[in-house]
């Protein structure tokens, strides 16, 4: 961000987050993501809104510095630091919008957490979008680097969602194959479509199952050089015996020299750069989602108890996040 005054930074962040969320809801994010200029006609088609309605919003994006335009009738181009601005906006979007039910109904979640959880659920799309924005700089780069450098032949991604991370890996590793496992049938269908669009569909297998089912049927893990799970295992860990079974299944079915790569969070980190967001993340998970995050040393000990010989933990850019690598 350009501003240096704290109040100006806050104002910029709020404005950028709101405009970027509007762009996302209008279907304009693919145009912003491609990093090249786009026309008013392309924006109108993507949004499904008349030019007279689309143009004022694009003008607002230009005025905010999120888009650039050389001439009154010329194409629009994303600003050079759009990725950085969207990463920053992701924290605001996740905190205030993705978790809106927990804020609006805070008292009920404290009084009747189970009933409140059934009645007031988060919008899955808002969670996915804000998590993707944070992940773009907050944890994806570290995970991608770790896995790509190992040059795995077969990758299994647990809780893969729509498969974005795994598809990126298969694109970078043209001789590798992958398995995307997720509980959501909708996410699995989108992963299959995304794989075909990225021309990796012939190397991608999509499995519509929960992570917990691997205890009784570990078939999807067979022969994996890398098993990855991103912000999934803290849910599984709430049932210790099931989590232990999943970890053992991963270890037993990894190829020789294979490893488990886990991106997840640790609670209430007190270092200055992490403490505020880590406190919010930890509190919301425990008070509203019923998830008690394991401490960093507890994560490492659980991997060792499952038989992994070497376990490392590395802080990532997102406050409170850690990259755990456990070698078979």
UniProtKB/TrEMBL annotation:
UniProt-listed InterPro entries: Methyltransf_12, SAM-dependent_MTases_sf
A Pfam family this chain is assigned to: Methyltransf_12
Listed SUPFAM superfamilies: S-adenosyl-L-methionine-dependent methyltransferases
Keyword annotations of the record: Methyltransferase, Transferase
GO biological process, any: methylation
Residue ranges of every copy of the Methyltransferase type domain listed in the record: 156-260
UniProt-listed CDD domains: AdoMet_MTases
Superkingdom as given in the UniProt entry: Bacteria
Transferase as UniProt keyword: yes
The keyword Methyltransferase belongs to this UniProt entry's keyword annotation: yes
An example molecular function term from Gene Ontology annotations: methyltransferase activity
Gene3D superfamilies linked to this entry: Vaccinia Virus protein VP39
Name the UniProt record assigns to this protein: Methyltransferase
Gene source species: Micromonospora carbonacea
């Amino acid at each position: 961000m350009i501003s240096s005054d704290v109040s100006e930074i806050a104002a910029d962040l709020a404005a950028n987050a709101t405009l970027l969320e509007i762009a996302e809801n209008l279907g304009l994010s693919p145009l912003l993501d491609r990093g090249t200029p786009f026309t008013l006609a392309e924006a109108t088609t993507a949004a499904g809104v008349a030019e007279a309605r689309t143009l004022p919003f694009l003008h607002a994006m230009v005025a905010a510095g999120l888009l650039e335009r050389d001439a009154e009738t010329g194409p629009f181009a994303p600003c050079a630091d759009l990725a950085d601005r969207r990463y920053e906006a992701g924290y605001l979007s996740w905190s205030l919008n993705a978790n809106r039910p927990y804020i609006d109904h805070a008292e009920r979640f404290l009084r009747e957490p189970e009933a409140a959880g059934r009645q007031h659920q988060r919008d899955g799309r808002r969670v996915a979008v804000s998590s993707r924005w944070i992940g773009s700089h907050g944890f994806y780069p570290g995970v991608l680097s770790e896995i790509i450098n190992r040059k795995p032949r077969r990758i299994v991604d647990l809780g893969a969602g729509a498969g974005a991370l795994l598809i990126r890996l298969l694109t970078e590793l043209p001789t590798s194959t992958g398995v995307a496992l997720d509980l959501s049938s909708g996410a699995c269908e989108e992963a299959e479509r995304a794989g075909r669009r990225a021309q990796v569909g012939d190397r991608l297998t999509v499995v519509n199952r929960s992570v917990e089912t691997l205890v009784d049927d570990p078939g999807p893990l067979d022969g994996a050089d890398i098993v990855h799970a991103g912000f999934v295992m803290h849910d599984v860990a709430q049932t210790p015996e099931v989590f232990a079974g999943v970890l053992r299944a991963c270890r037993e079915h990894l190829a020789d020299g294979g490893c488990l790569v886990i991106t997840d969070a640790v609670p209430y980190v007190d270092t200055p750069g992490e403490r505020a967001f880590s406190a919010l993340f930890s509190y919301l998970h425990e008070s509203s989602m019923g998830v008690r995050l394991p401490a960093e040393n507890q994560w490492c000990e659980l991997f060792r108890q499952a038989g992994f010989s070497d376990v490392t933990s590395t802080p990532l850019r997102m406050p409170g996040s850690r990259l755990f690598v456990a070698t078979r």
